Amino acid sequence: MIRTFRPIDALRKLVDYIWVVDFDFLAEDNRDDLIMPLGHVNVIFNYGSAYRLMEQEQITVIPDSVIIGQIKSAKYVQYGSHLTQIGIALTPLGLLQLFQYPGIQLTEQMVPAACVDAGLDKLYRILIGSTDIDDTLYAINHYLLYKLEELDEKDTSRIEEMLAYVEQECEQLSIVRMAHHFRVSVSTLERGFKKDVGLTPKSYGNIVKFRKHVEMKGRRNWLEHRYYDQSHLLKAAHKFAGKTIKQLEKQLPELTLDYLWHGPQ
């Protein structure tokens, strides 16, 4: 019911994966979900029941064709009885190269997809009539490849190097060492990185670190050894997954969180 697919080779640096969720009927007990920050900007096309973002006392209906920028902590959503969605998990580099859109303008924001690119609404309508997953993937890859070739090439080599650095050093990321490595001041590094990615290097690095341990079972089993102490681990788990580590070890009622933590059942 939840499936992920890799993009074509030409898009590998720009799209982490394409995901498809399809449930004909969700019981009321399964309609609450929790979305982890994974360092992506998500394009989401919804074809099922309306769904909502649940924030304390505020409830917001999410547009059927939406871009959700970088998030800093776990978000709670509530689905309707019918859940059918197609999503594109863009890397920070993907947002810059495919749409030439600064990440900071989308951080913690839900924006109708057409506000970023009118072609996304056209793609949404194309996918409505698609009943075959191969046709769906072809349409998405073809559209993104067209976007890549359509726009004037933007030099993103610098931020690409910085993103690679954070990915490599996320376990023990030092902003001072990173600034020294790129021969800029700490303030210049943080300002430029946040403008392009939407998060500071430290915030993005913390998300990448937690994500890597979630994605790799071998690391996940040793998660407690990857943090300075138990307190840091508990804070990270609560912030990024909304649960304690003991709660995460059990089967979870939240569809997306359970899939990310335990994989396909």
Automatic annotation (TrEMBL):
Please state every residue range assigned to the domain named HTH araC/xylS-type: 160-204
In terms of superkingdom, the source organism counts as: Bacteria
GO MF, one example? DNA-binding transcription factor activity
Q: Which InterPro entries match?
A: DUF6597, HTH_AraC
Per the UniProt record, one Pfam family is: DUF6597
Signal peptide range in chain numbering: none
Alphabetized PROSITE patterns for the sequence: HTH_ARAC_FAMILY_2 (PS01124)
The protein, known as: HTH araC/xylS-type domain-containing protein
Q: Native species of this protein?
A: Paenibacillus montaniterrae
